[in-house]
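HOLO CASE FILE
Compound: glutamine
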Amino acid sequence: VKEYLKQIKAHARLNVFNEVFEQDALAAAKNVDARVKAGTAGRLAGMVIGIKDNICYKDHKVTASSRILENFTSIYSSTIVERLLAEDAIIIGRCNCDEFAMGAANENSFFGPVKNFADETRVSGGSSGGSAVAVQAGMCHAAIGTDTGGSVRQPASFCGVVGFKPTYGRISRHGIISYASSFDQVGTLTKSVEDAALLLEIMGGPDEFDGTLSRKELPKAEAHKPDNGKKKIAYLQEAISSPGVDAEVKNTLINAIEKLRADGHTVKPISFEYLDYLVPSYYILAMAEASSNLARYDGVHYGYRSPNATDLISTYKLSRSEGFGKEVKRRIMLGTFVLSAGYYDAYYAKAQKVRKLIRDQTNAILGEYDFLLTPTAPEPAFPIGKKEKDPVVTYLYDIFTVQASLAGLPAISLPRGNNSKGLPLGLQLLAKGFAEEQLLNFSEYFL
Ligand code: GLN
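Model generated. Tokens follow.
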């Protein structure tokens, strides 16, 4: 813990932690130490973990990097925090993120952007940017993030770490601040795939507080081992043919394909019929769900209340106007619009139908192949401030990650070295629902 605290202090300018639980972590380390000596320690004894600042931890602040929750203290712990602590993990602090997990660059945080440790003038990726850099810069052993449309995988690829999102329904969302509930999933940022497997087993599984959880058996961390079998892998042809994908990103994919073939795997190009509809349907649905989930921040129940309010209506209006940032407001407005009586059928209902087509076609591909291989993001980390002004440009960055989210499938971003500017690159591997064990075992091939 002391070593990680030293790293956190040395790299404070990266803006990774919204709060460091220094005293708590030191006290926890003493307790764990005693249990190790007594032979009663849990399976994560001494694993120092950072949690994204949208994960509730009893008696600790949780802000979702928003002004509206700036002084909010959680009165209970999320199921995942309870499960981590029960196995003697040590939680070292809460990591900066995009406000309410909305973003792909960590530039939408009320507390400012997180800087990439590989190049401090560049973004960390988002929305779990703080969690990614915490692992990248050695500020903790592993970090927990959430992935609604790529928020674990994309920052992992920008920061050169492993980012894993399990199947929807694997890990409890109880005590995770909701963004888009039919997509939100807890994920991990780690240096190794083995750690991702261990954390999945510890955090996953049924929980009476989340009715969407599957009862399918969780993969055992002990079963994690490199898989040397021959696989059938599809890759997205458009990732190579599209002018929107960076040349070095393409080369990373091409090199991986050539190596896989040379090693005897079957690798074939596929075209995804609904490629152009991935980003639009994701954003329509995610914004609709967000507008509904964020209705609870009304200046009355909890969180920020405007001191300028004079009656109920002005309490709502001013608290929300002053409490939410620009991107969150944009999404609430667009989400409310697509759900409104006159536009529901044209946008929300249509997007739900498209989601079903996307899910069915993705499952059909994975019926024929073991995995789908794509870049994680079309470009490496970009300079801070470069894309902020055009939200649509940033939304398009999610093209490769939202497919797994729309289909509810497990996916992982694996580091594949650096480009010519020293910026990390990543590839994404997507698997069938609940095939985490196969996904994680085969991921070792790429490391
Ligand atoms: N970039 C996507 C968005 O802004 C994904 C965010 C996430 O996964 N939380 O919605």
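CASE NOTES: The mean pLDDT is 97. Residues 2-223 form a domain with the Amidase signature (AS) enzymes fold (CATH 3.90.1300.10).
CLOSED: yes
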